[in-house]
Amino acid sequence: MNGLKNVTSIIFPLITFPYVSKVLEVDYVGKYNFSYSVISYFILFAALGISTYAIREGSKHRNNKEKMYTFSNKIYDMYTVIDDFN
């Protein structure tokens, strides 16, 4: 599954970039790239905080299997959402 994701992340831009550059023109492609870079920084900072949060809060729930299960699902969902933006 990860290999398929990597292959599509390479092929998809090769197919869509010519179309997007024709539709958006040069000015709007630059605005898009700037917006994407700002969003990438926010995602980076969020990802750094999630690992610290997971360690700190996970240690609180280590003796209770039910709480640990729900907590680990919450952390997994956070990483899934962040990974979707990358």
TrEMBL record:
Keyword terms of this UniProt record: Membrane, Transmembrane, Transmembrane helix
Domain of life: Bacteria
InterPro entries referenced in this protein's UniProt entry, alphabetically: Polysacc_synth, PolySynth_Transporter
GO cellular component: membrane
Main subcellular localisation: membrane
Topological relation to the membrane, as annotated: Multi-pass membrane protein
Keyword Transmembrane among record annotations: yes
Transmembrane segments: 34-55
Any single Pfam family the record assigns to this protein: Polysacc_synt
Subcellular location: Membrane
Entry keyword Cytoplasm: no
Name of the protein: Oligosaccharide flippase family protein
